[in-house]
Amino acid sequence: MSDELLGELVQRLRGQRLWTQQDVADEYNAVEGRDAMTGKEIGRYEREQRIPSRYTCRHLATVFGVPSELVERAAAVSRRHRREASRRAGPREQERNLAFEPPSMPTLFEGCVHDGMPGSRAENALSLHPDDPALRYPASVLSALETVTGLAEDDVLRRELMGQLPFLLTALHEPTRNWLLAVLELPSPSSEGRRVSKARIEQIRTVINTFAEADAQQGGGHGRQALAQYLRTTVLPLLRAESNEHVQRALFDLAGEQAQLIGWMSYDTGHHGLAQRYLLQALRFSEEAQNPVLGAHTMATLSHLAGTLGHADEGVQLAKTGQIALRGASNAMYADLAVLEARSYAMQGLSRKAAEAVIRAENALHDVVTENEPPEMRFIDHAYIAGEIANTLILLGDPLRAIDFADQSIDASLSQGRARRGALSNIALARAHLAVRDIDGACLAGGEALRLSGEVDSARTAEALRDLRARMAKFGDVRPVRELVELMEDT
Predict the structure, then answer these.
(1) Local structure of residue 106 (DSSP, 8 states)
(2) Domains in the chain: how many in total?
(3) pLDDT tens digits along 113-130
(4) Cβ–Cβ < 8 Å for 215, 199
(5) pLDDT by residue (tens digit) across 262-312?
(6) Is the dihedral of CA 42, 45, 51, 55 positive or negative?
(7) Global confidence as pTM
(8) Per the domain annotation, does 65 fall within a domain?
(9) Residue 301: C-alpha distances to residues 8, 80, 267 (Å)
(10) Is 20 among the domain residues?
(11) Fewest 10 Å CB contacts: which of 117, 214, 350, 439?
(12) Which of 4, 46, 57, 48 is closest to 21 using CA atoms?
């Protein structure tokens, strides 16, 4: 029995009790205290399509009345067999498994020790094992819950290693497709049931807002790990304990918003692979919360990330997918997705499509009624949209219009104390002035960008500033430019 596979074990224990797969699921839900398991999920375990986490293994052991070590050992055997099969498979077979096989583990790199030595969970992540659940769209929300728990834990305890996780373009396709299909089956977007009058819910909302404000003003490096710790130790445990459907939906909404925000902050600090994993799990939470606006917000962040990494075509597809899912639920979110679509088109030199998307973004922003927008949309405003339009116009070779939009963004962002947006838009303004050979204007904007960048912890801003420095260095024979470039190098 020591080499018994998990599927064989579950089938044997179920057969001894003459239970159906649904009987096992019903018993599991009685142990869990809520509807967390289905008969289909048990079937997946028996067919070895999924391998349960330790948490689930312990509940299964309770259901069958056997030692938890027995179920965990069988799961480890199945996992080992899967790894061996993956190593034997050719590249084409491995790619097919990565694209279509359901997620196998609900914790990020389960079964590895937390000692920081080779073999730790984060180090194993760098092996790019195809079973990484954080790159999948979980079949059940319980799997997403456990995946994010493991992700946040590793983020807090293994910061440096987790920051090395790579961004995998091919891993975007299945989760974003499955999310869109799931969202389109939901009822039309509605605000009913999203605001639950529970003090705990409001307290969590206040905490998230505080972190979002810090991110907007000071960059993603301020508080990212603290937010991950709060998600892991406060919000996710509440989801396990809560059985009221409306309260639970509100909690999934908040957990998804946190995962999206942590993903955004990870992107802003240059941890692109980590950002991708948080964002893909946020999609699953948004489905459970029945909140397509949250999912679309997550798709916007993924589009931003893909475009920054040079995957412009994917950036377009992600932005358009988010727009389809919105179905008119948020003008602010539509404006964000449209301007990101425009930016990605501009990166490909598709000027007509980019210009059309810019017009849609402006029109949507004009139609925003603040009272009708979710609170997390408050930073998708004129300061942000105008700044992104400025960057798009620079890519399209229209620096004069870019100057106008960059100025608008700077005025709006600085009136709100948003140093990162002010820095980024000043960088865009400096680039536009360089394009028209206005050296004085470029130096003025570049100096302001340098000043503001010192107030933020943002790798994205630092990288944009380095790019500006390289562009200005070409005019180094002009004294004000040379002095500014030297200041940038010293910073």
Answers:
(1) S
(2) 1
(3) 333 333 333 444 444 444
(4) no
(5) 999 999 999 999 999 999 999 999 999 999 999 999 999 999 999 999 999
(6) positive
(7) 0.71
(8) yes
(9) 42, 35, 9
(10) yes
(11) 117
(12) 46
